Amino acid sequence: MESEDFAAAEAELQKVSEKGVGVLCKMKIDMEELQGFVASTNQRVDEMEQRQVELERRTAELERRTAELETKTAEQVTRTTELTRRADRTDESIDDLKVKSDKTKVERAVEASKKAEEASKKAEEASKVSQDCAEVCVGSAEWIADELAKVREEDAVDEGDATPQSPPPNPNAPPFGAARPVSPDDDRKPPAYESPPAYKSP
Q1: Which residues fall in a compositionally biased region of kind Pro residues (predicted)?
Q2: In this structure, are residues 116 and 199 in contact, taking their beta carbons and an 8 Å threshold?
Protein backbone atom coordinates (compact mmCIF):
# COMPACT_ATOMS: atom_id res chain seq x y z
CA MET A 1 0.00 0.00 0.00
CA GLU A 2 2.74 2.41 0.83
CA SER A 3 4.57 1.58 -2.35
CA GLU A 4 1.47 2.36 -4.37
CA ASP A 5 1.01 5.69 -2.61
CA PHE A 6 4.65 6.51 -3.16
CA ALA A 7 4.40 5.67 -6.83
CA ALA A 8 1.28 7.78 -7.15
CA ALA A 9 2.93 10.68 -5.37
CA GLU A 10 6.00 10.35 -7.54
CA ALA A 11 3.85 10.33 -10.65
CA GLU A 12 2.00 13.38 -9.41
CA LEU A 13 5.28 15.09 -8.67
CA GLN A 14 6.49 14.25 -12.17
CA LYS A 15 3.40 15.83 -13.63
CA VAL A 16 3.84 18.95 -11.53
CA SER A 17 7.50 19.14 -12.50
CA GLU A 18 6.66 18.84 -16.14
CA LYS A 19 4.05 21.57 -15.79
CA GLY A 20 6.56 23.75 -13.94
CA VAL A 21 9.14 23.21 -16.65
CA GLY A 22 6.56 24.15 -19.26
CA VAL A 23 5.64 27.26 -17.35
CA LEU A 24 9.31 28.17 -16.98
CA CYS A 25 9.91 27.60 -20.66
CA LYS A 26 6.94 29.75 -21.48
CA MET A 27 8.15 32.43 -19.07
CA LYS A 28 11.59 32.30 -20.67
CA ILE A 29 10.07 32.74 -24.09
CA ASP A 30 7.94 35.60 -22.85
CA MET A 31 10.99 37.16 -21.21
CA GLU A 32 12.95 36.95 -24.44
CA GLU A 33 10.06 38.52 -26.34
CA LEU A 34 9.81 41.20 -23.67
CA GLN A 35 13.55 41.88 -23.92
CA GLY A 36 13.24 42.11 -27.73
CA PHE A 37 10.33 44.54 -27.32
CA VAL A 38 12.30 46.58 -24.80
CA ALA A 39 15.33 46.63 -27.11
CA SER A 40 13.13 47.70 -30.02
CA THR A 41 11.49 50.32 -27.85
CA ASN A 42 14.90 51.61 -26.72
CA GLN A 43 16.03 51.74 -30.35
CA ARG A 44 12.95 53.72 -31.29
CA VAL A 45 13.53 56.04 -28.34
CA ASP A 46 17.12 56.57 -29.48
CA GLU A 47 15.90 57.32 -33.00
CA MET A 48 13.34 59.74 -31.62
CA GLU A 49 16.01 61.41 -29.53
CA GLN A 50 18.24 61.70 -32.61
CA ARG A 51 15.34 63.13 -34.57
CA GLN A 52 14.67 65.56 -31.72
CA VAL A 53 18.30 66.65 -31.75
CA GLU A 54 18.20 67.07 -35.55
CA LEU A 55 14.95 69.00 -35.25
CA GLU A 56 16.47 71.28 -32.62
CA ARG A 57 19.53 71.79 -34.83
CA ARG A 58 17.33 72.65 -37.81
CA THR A 59 15.23 74.95 -35.64
CA ALA A 60 18.37 76.76 -34.46
CA GLU A 61 19.58 77.04 -38.07
CA LEU A 62 16.19 78.40 -39.14
CA GLU A 63 16.24 80.94 -36.30
CA ARG A 64 19.76 81.99 -37.31
CA ARG A 65 18.73 82.41 -40.95
CA THR A 66 15.61 84.31 -39.86
CA ALA A 67 17.78 86.67 -37.80
CA GLU A 68 20.12 87.18 -40.76
CA LEU A 69 17.15 87.85 -43.03
CA GLU A 70 15.75 90.38 -40.57
CA THR A 71 19.16 92.07 -40.37
CA LYS A 72 19.44 92.22 -44.17
CA THR A 73 15.87 93.49 -44.41
CA ALA A 74 16.66 96.25 -41.90
CA GLU A 75 19.82 97.14 -43.86
CA GLN A 76 17.83 97.21 -47.09
CA VAL A 77 15.24 99.48 -45.50
CA THR A 78 18.02 101.77 -44.28
CA ARG A 79 19.62 101.86 -47.73
CA THR A 80 16.27 102.50 -49.37
CA THR A 81 15.62 105.37 -46.95
CA GLU A 82 19.07 106.81 -47.66
CA LEU A 83 18.54 106.49 -51.41
CA THR A 84 15.19 108.23 -51.05
CA ARG A 85 16.82 111.06 -49.10
CA ARG A 86 19.56 111.38 -51.71
CA ALA A 87 16.96 111.42 -54.48
CA ASP A 88 15.05 114.16 -52.64
CA ARG A 89 18.27 116.14 -52.20
CA THR A 90 19.06 115.68 -55.89
CA ASP A 91 15.60 116.94 -56.83
CA GLU A 92 16.06 119.93 -54.53
CA SER A 93 19.48 120.63 -56.07
CA ILE A 94 17.99 120.41 -59.57
CA ASP A 95 15.21 122.80 -58.55
CA ASP A 96 17.77 125.19 -57.04
CA LEU A 97 19.84 125.04 -60.22
CA LYS A 98 16.75 125.75 -62.30
CA VAL A 99 15.88 128.74 -60.10
CA LYS A 100 19.47 130.01 -60.26
CA SER A 101 19.50 129.49 -64.04
CA ASP A 102 16.25 131.40 -64.46
CA LYS A 103 17.53 134.14 -62.15
CA THR A 104 20.77 134.31 -64.12
CA LYS A 105 18.86 134.55 -67.39
CA VAL A 106 16.74 137.38 -65.99
CA GLU A 107 19.82 139.18 -64.66
CA ARG A 108 21.57 138.80 -68.01
CA ALA A 109 18.50 140.05 -69.85
CA VAL A 110 18.30 143.08 -67.53
CA GLU A 111 22.03 143.70 -67.93
CA ALA A 112 21.75 143.37 -71.71
CA SER A 113 18.83 145.80 -71.71
CA LYS A 114 20.86 148.27 -69.66
CA LYS A 115 23.83 147.93 -72.00
CA ALA A 116 21.58 148.40 -75.02
CA GLU A 117 20.09 151.49 -73.43
CA GLU A 118 23.56 152.83 -72.65
CA ALA A 119 24.68 152.11 -76.21
CA SER A 120 21.63 153.92 -77.55
CA LYS A 121 22.36 156.93 -75.34
CA LYS A 122 26.00 156.94 -76.46
CA ALA A 123 24.88 156.74 -80.07
CA GLU A 124 22.56 159.70 -79.56
CA GLU A 125 25.35 161.66 -77.87
CA ALA A 126 27.75 160.78 -80.66
CA SER A 127 25.19 161.85 -83.24
CA LYS A 128 24.68 165.15 -81.43
CA VAL A 129 28.43 165.73 -81.12
CA SER A 130 28.88 164.92 -84.81
CA GLN A 131 26.13 167.36 -85.76
CA ASP A 132 27.68 170.07 -83.55
CA CYS A 133 31.08 169.45 -85.11
CA ALA A 134 29.56 169.68 -88.58
CA GLU A 135 27.90 172.99 -87.73
CA VAL A 136 31.16 174.33 -86.27
CA CYS A 137 33.06 173.26 -89.37
CA VAL A 138 30.52 174.96 -91.69
CA GLY A 139 30.61 178.15 -89.62
CA SER A 140 34.41 178.14 -89.57
CA ALA A 141 34.58 177.63 -93.34
CA GLU A 142 32.28 180.59 -93.95
CA TRP A 143 34.30 182.77 -91.58
CA ILE A 144 37.53 181.73 -93.29
CA ALA A 145 36.00 182.52 -96.69
CA ASP A 146 34.93 185.94 -95.46
CA GLU A 147 38.39 186.63 -94.07
CA LEU A 148 40.06 185.57 -97.31
CA ALA A 149 37.72 187.85 -99.26
CA LYS A 150 38.64 190.74 -96.96
CA VAL A 151 42.34 190.06 -97.37
CA ARG A 152 42.01 189.88 -101.15
CA GLU A 153 40.07 193.11 -101.16
CA GLU A 154 42.72 194.86 -99.08
CA ASP A 155 45.46 193.53 -101.35
CA ALA A 156 43.59 194.77 -104.41
CA VAL A 157 43.17 198.21 -102.88
CA ASP A 158 46.86 198.41 -102.03
CA GLU A 159 47.84 197.48 -105.58
CA GLY A 160 45.40 200.02 -107.14
CA ASP A 161 43.44 197.29 -108.80
CA ALA A 162 39.96 198.20 -109.91
CA THR A 163 38.56 194.94 -108.66
CA PRO A 164 35.04 195.51 -107.43
CA GLN A 165 34.81 195.52 -103.74
CA SER A 166 33.21 192.59 -102.00
CA PRO A 167 30.27 193.29 -99.76
CA PRO A 168 31.04 194.37 -96.23
CA PRO A 169 31.43 191.60 -93.65
CA ASN A 170 28.35 190.43 -91.89
CA PRO A 171 28.36 191.84 -88.35
CA ASN A 172 26.15 188.97 -87.25
CA ALA A 173 28.63 186.31 -88.40
CA PRO A 174 29.77 184.09 -85.54
CA PRO A 175 33.38 184.32 -84.38
CA PHE A 176 35.92 181.70 -85.40
CA GLY A 177 35.20 178.33 -83.92
CA ALA A 178 31.57 179.11 -83.04
CA ALA A 179 28.69 177.08 -84.39
CA ARG A 180 26.83 178.70 -87.27
CA PRO A 181 23.07 178.98 -86.75
CA VAL A 182 21.38 176.88 -89.35
CA SER A 183 18.45 178.47 -91.17
CA PRO A 184 15.38 176.33 -91.83
CA ASP A 185 15.76 177.18 -95.53
CA ASP A 186 19.43 176.22 -95.67
CA ASP A 187 19.87 173.20 -97.95
CA ARG A 188 23.42 172.60 -96.77
CA LYS A 189 23.43 169.80 -94.24
CA PRO A 190 26.26 168.05 -92.45
CA PRO A 191 27.14 164.55 -93.63
CA ALA A 192 24.76 161.87 -92.39
CA TYR A 193 25.86 160.18 -89.21
CA GLU A 194 26.04 156.42 -89.34
CA SER A 195 24.93 154.98 -86.02
CA PRO A 196 26.92 152.06 -84.61
CA PRO A 197 25.52 148.54 -85.04
CA ALA A 198 22.73 147.56 -82.66
CA TYR A 199 23.76 145.89 -79.45
CA LYS A 200 23.10 142.15 -79.37
CA SER A 201 22.54 140.48 -76.04
CA PRO A 202 24.80 137.50 -75.34
Answers
A1: 165-174
A2: yes
